[in-house]
Amino acid sequence: MSIETDFFNPEIYYSKEAAFNYEKNKRMQQIQKEMTERALELIELKKGKILDIGCGTGFSMQAIKDNGFEVQGIDISQPMINIAKKKGFKVKKADFSNIPFEDKTFDGIISISALQWITGKSYSEVIEHFNKTAREFYRVLKKKGKAVIQFYPKTEEEFNIVIESFKKAGFSILIAEDFPNTKKRKRYLILTKG
Q1: CATH code at 64?
Q2: Which tens digit of pLDDT belongs to each residue from 122-170?
Q3: Fewest C-beta in 10 Å: which of 1, 26, 88, 92?
Q4: Residue 9 CB partners (closer than 8 Å, separation 6+)
Q5: Is the whole model's pTM more than 0.85, yes or no?
């Protein structure tokens, strides 16, 4: 199997300087906004509370808020969290596989460009991280809650492993693909809690 197992730690990568540079990047801000608005279309919620997983400095949270939702976020990078807090967002430092909220708290979850940060030192560790993450998504969503995940898998195998992890956790899954066969290709997993 060829799944990427390089241990790449976003806590270290997103230093104070990297978080500051990310926040000032207008192109990144626009891309995140567009992908979040697409995710909101796919999630098909009219109102409610949404958790932004991998919220970074708050670009996606702003788009969610601007669309009339209550939003909270988690991210592993403290410098990113600090910037989001300065903007007035409710955010917590947390790992995807240990979400610090009660069961059935959220109507929806949106995660943009974040799931690819899950890595591990071995193939089995990577799979276990995906499995734990999927169970946590399921746990914090309300009955019939929905989640939309956009991420950049390193390989097609990794994409399929993610799908299997979320199926095992109890989700039904649809895949939306925008701009197929181009460099702008984006795939979204649309998850519905069973």
Answers
A1: 3.40.50.150
A2: 888 889 999 999 999 999 999 999 999 999 988 899 999 999 999 999 9
A3: 26
A4: none
A5: yes
